[in-house]
Amino acid sequence: MSNSTIDRARKADKATHNISELTGMAKMAIADGKVTSEEADTVRAFLAQASMYPSPLIENLIEDFDRIYADGIVDDEEKQELFELFSKLAGDPSTLGEMAKSSNLPLCDPPPPIRFEGSRFCLTGTFGSQLKRSGCEKVIRDRGGVIGGIAKSTDYLVIGEYATSSWKHSSMGNKILKAMAFRDDEGKPAIVSEGQFLSAL
């Protein structure tokens, strides 16, 4: 067995161990029915170390934490999102990497053309492409678009490809339901998948 093969095996074992550690931390964090800022900070610090031995689940969690901590404050809505993430991790970690079927999502049919210049975008869910969510946001800004929350002025809601089929009961479900209501009343935003967004690049 070559040294490179042994090294890959060790990294895979370490990644598996890290996921087990995270599962235990998640169970402890949600035991009292909420996630505190201190618990979130502890998991974030662990993820920083775990990034040395990446796996799709670890990478998705790191991206979620980076987004949540982007403004330096973890508000109540974000704590609820973390609680839902930790609940999935504590119950069945594989659901954090489950690809949502487009038939389960209220995507526009047919998919609309996506124009960037002057358009307002909202992104939700976990993105599975190499660009990741942060890369998609950069593309939007570089092409003259604006990133923000869901509002009547939003032109596009882009849903990441990794989500569970029970999206209505997740934190991203609030954004999707609001977008659906605005779309019914105002004719927008268009709701598109990550794949449809990438096809427009």
Element-by-element helix/strand order: HHHHEHEEHEH
Number of domains: 2
User: What is the helix tally?
Assistant: 7
Please name the CATH topology of the largest domain: Rossmann fold
Mean pLDDT: 82
Level of helix content? 40-55%
Q: Architecture of the largest domain, according to CATH?
A: 3-Layer(aba) Sandwich
How large is the radius of gyration?
A: 18 Å
Structural class by SSE content: alpha/beta
CATH class of the largest domain: Alpha Beta
Number of DSSP strands? 4
Which band does the percent of strand residues land in?
Answer: 5-15%
Regions with pLDDT < 50 over 5+ consecutive residues?
Answer: none
Biggest sheet layout: 4 strands, parallel
How would you sum up this structure, described in words?
The chain has 201 residues and is an alpha/beta fold. It folds into 2 domains: 3-97, no CATH class; 102-199, Rossmann fold, CATH 3.40.50. Helix content is 52%, strand content 7%. The protein is built from 7 helices and 4 strands. The protein has helices spanning 3-30, 37-50, 56-68, 76-91, 132-142, 171-186, 194-199; strands at residues 120-124, 146-147, 156-159, 190-193. It has a 4-stranded parallel beta sheet with strand order 2-1-3-4, with helices on both faces. Helix 1 packs antiparallel against helix 2 and helix 2 (37-50) crosses helix 3. The mean pLDDT is 82.
